[in-house]
Amino acid sequence: MRKRNSGMVYRLIVPLTEIGSNVRGLETTATYDKSTEEFIIHTPVLTASKWWIGSLGRTYVLDREAAHPRANHACVMAQLILDGQSYGPHAFIVPIRDLKTHKPLPGVTVGDVGPKFGLNTLDNGFILFNNVRIPHENMLAKYSHVVKATGSYERPPNANVGYGTMVTASRIATLKADVGSSEYRHVCSPRSGKGSHYSD
Predict the structure, then answer these.
(1) What CATH number does residue 116 fall under?
(2) Which of 19, 64, 91, 165 is the Cys-Cys partner for 140 at CB 3.0 to 4.6 Å?
(3) What's the structural domain count of the chain?
(4) Extended beta strands in 46-152, E state
(5) Cα–Cα distance measured from residue 34 to residue 152, given in angstroms and rounded to the nearest whole number
(6) What's the rounded Cα separation, in Å, for the pair 17 and 14?
(7) Gyration radius of the chain's alpha carbons
(8) Is 196 within a domain?
(9) What is the per-residue pLDDT for 138?
């Protein structure tokens, strides 16, 4: 997904797959911090690395017009953690690169997966998060949500809604782009956790 606004190019990717293919058993976590009203996006183990995401690995790609920055925001699927309890996979908008420098933001590690047997012109990448903080509003919460003040969870009407969101998110991302609005820019303001040990 891409949209230009005020000279900026917003590109959104959907990093769903981790190392392996157990979609229901995703290991990336999104832990809610009631004291700051933020979600903490974290890659707890190496197998939780988001893997094989198109348009992620390289900072720039050349086309007929000019060099355009690659993905700078991600719709991350992660296990929602509230008071130590998991509530299953949910979607979160996470800024991953600076809009001006295109460098990875603090706590974010991105890279290219390397040479492949085919389609080497596509920069398939990987991404890891080290306690990256995002505001409460960055949770996609049409069917279920976390109450901002209390941190309590309001369930979707159907238990399969969350899983269906994961399966269709990447398809929707390729069909419609509307990520350049002022409301979108307002919620995309990360604050990295302390003690990051990943290299940017």
Answers:
(1) 2.40.110.10
(2) 91
(3) 1
(4) 50-53, 60-62, 67-69, 73-82, 85-95, 108-112, 125-129, 132-135, 145-146
(5) 10
(6) 9
(7) 16
(8) no
(9) 97
Sequence-distant (6+) residues with CB within 8 A of 56 are 13, 15, 70, 71, 110, 123, 124, 125, 126, 127
Rounded distance between C-alpha atoms, residue 176 and residue 168, angstroms = 13
In a domain, 97, yes or no: yes
pTM: 0.76
Contact (CB, 8 A) for 122 and 171:
no
Q: How far apart are CA 176 and CA 174, in angstroms?
A: 6
Q: Does some domain include residue 197? A: no
* Residue segments in the chain with a per-residue pLDDT below the cut of 50: 1, 62-66, 170, 173-200
Domain with 75, as residue range(s), is: 2-191
> Which pair of tokens denotes residue 129?
């998060």
The burial class, CB within 10 Å (0-12 / 13-18 / 19+), for 50 is: buried
